[in-house]
Amino acid sequence: MRSPSILAVRGDAPYKTLSQIAEHAKKNPGSVRIGTAGAGSVGDFCVLTLNSLTGAGLTTVPFTGASPAVTALLGGHVEGVVLALGTMTGHLRSGTLLGIVISSGYPDFPDIPTLSELGYSEKLFGVWVGFFAPAGVPAEVTRALVPALERVIKSPAIGAKLRPLGMLMDYSPPEKLLAEIRDEHRRVSEIAAKSGLIK
Predict the structure, then answer these.
(1) Most CB contacts within 10 A, which of 49, 64, 85, 195?
(2) Which residues contact 92 (CB under 8 A, 6 or more apart)?
(3) Cα–Cα distance between 74 and 90 in angstroms, integer?
(4) Does residue 196 carry a pLDDT above 80?
(5) Same structural domain for residues 141 and 120?
(6) Tens digit of pLDDT for each residue in 9-28?
(7) What is the Cα–Cα distance from 53 to 32, expressed in whole angstroms?
(8) Domain count of the chain?
(9) What pLDDT was estimated at residue 163?
(10) Are strands 80-84 and 5-10 parallel, antiparallel or unpaired?
(11) Are 58 and 32 in contact (CB under 8 A)?
(12) Domain of 82?
């Protein structure tokens, strides 16, 4: 299951694109504060990625969850948020919030571009959920579980229930999931080291 991350601003914000936000932030250092769901969250690493790519100098403001971040944005206490789509679907549909960039395309919001569509080589981090079992689980258990999970994940009925919540079912076999975990770990480590979060 995946829920893309979105950089969103208020619908009445003076900037409507990533380049406009970056330009404004460069001209007015410290003026663009981006709320996230917490310190070390996916949103935090998305902001670090955006700063690395654009040089915008966006200021991260970690909240204790997604809802307080959205409330702060609506109240004008921060200029944007980077959160999982599910926390903002209603506001994006109503136009109260405007999506600036998304970690991966979402059928309900085709007008929100990804970084690659904007010409960048990196991508934002999204939120995903996977199934895990203890190391050393018997092979016969894996042979039974993997196809069963695949059937459920590919079920149109389940996908239809999750899509309005900002989530898409996306089956990956174990080896593909493992490769993704390793790649994401590499990217996070590189960003953390470059930003001074780790030595």
Answers:
(1) 85
(2) 6, 8, 85, 98, 99, 109
(3) 13
(4) no
(5) no
(6) 999 999 999 999 999 999 99
(7) 16
(8) 2
(9) 87
(10) antiparallel
(11) yes
(12) 2-127
pLDDT at 199 over 70: no
Cα–Cα dist 74/145, whole Å: 44
Are 7 and 60 contained in the same domain? yes
The verdict on 46 and 81 lying in the same domain is yes
| 67 token code pair | 């809802």
pLDDT band at residue 193 under the 50/70/90 scheme: confident
Q: Please report the sign of the dihedral spanned by the C-alpha atoms of residue 168, residue 174, residue 177, residue 181.
A: positive
- Is there a single domain that holds both residue 29 and residue 76? yes
Specify whether the CB–CB gap between 138 and 153 falls below 8 A: no
Long-range contact pairs involving 108-115 (C-beta distance under 8 Å, separation at least 24): 108/163, 109/85, 112/6, 115/53
Rounded mean pLDDT of 53-81?
95
- Residue 56 resides in a domain: yes
